[in-house]
Fold this sequence. Notes:
The chain is of the alpha/beta class. Helix content is 42%, strand content 18%. The strands form 2 sheets. The chain has a 7-stranded mixed sheet, with helices on both faces. Strands 3-4 form a two-stranded antiparallel ribbon. The radius of gyration is 34 Å and the shape is globular. Residues 2-6, 17-35 and 37-45 have low confidence and may be disordered.
Amino acid sequence: MKKITYILFAALVLFSSCKKQKTQIPQTEQIQINIQPSTQSQVLQSQNQKWHVTNKRVYVIFGYGFNTEDTIEKLTAILQERYGLESEGGLISTLTYPDSFKHGVRSYASELSSILSGTEKDLAGVVILGAPENTHTAFAKLQDFWEMGVPYPIYALFPQDDVLGLESTCDFVLDKEQKTDLTGDIAPEETLSEIILEAPQVLTDCIDYMQEIEAPFVKDSTLPKHVQQMLRDKKIHHYVDPESGIQSINHFVLN
C-alpha cells in the first residue's frame, strides 16, 4: 500500500513539474536573417550579354575627329555592349590621342609603336580612327620590330595622316568621299558629320571581320573582295592618287 502511495505521489510531482515547464515559455532571441539579393537580374544579364571573356585584345584608337568626350563615350558604349572592355575581361582596349600618347608634357603619335611593341597582351588587331600625323611612322617602327611581319591586322579608318605612309604600313585604309558645295569647295564640316554618323557601323564591321579572318590581309587582288565583304552593303571604290593617277591596292573610299 505504501509502495502504491509513493508511486502515485511521484507521478503527481512529475505531472506538476511538466506543467510548470510548459507554462514557462522562454523569451525568443532575435534571429538575424540575411536576405540575399535575387540572382534573377544576374541571370538575365548573362543571357543578354553578347560577348564572352577572352584573353585576346583589339586596340581601338580614337584620333582626330573621334577624340571628343561625347564621341568617345558613344563609341565606347557600343564597343562595351558588343565585345566587352578589357577591364571586364572583354576584347576591347581603347587609347585616345593625345592623352594616351604623352611623353613628358607633349604628345607624340609615334609613341604608339612603343605601346604596341611593349604590350604583353595577345593582340588580335588594331583599328585607328582619325589617325593623326606621324601615325605611319609609329607603324613603320612596328614593322621593323616584327621584321616586316606584324602578326595582327591594322586598319586605318578616316585618317588625317600621310596617305602613302599609311598605305604602306596598314592592312587597309578607308576614307570618306568628301562633299563639295556649289562652288566646288570641300565642305569639311558636313563630311566630318557624315563620318561620325557612319563610324559605329564601319567600326563594328571591321572588328567582326578582324575576328573572323584572324590574320593580316595580303595586299593582292583578293583584298578588295575582303573589304567589300567586311563593309557589306557599303559602296566603296579604290582611292586614286590625284597627282599620279595611280590606283591604290589597299586604300578605299566610302561613297
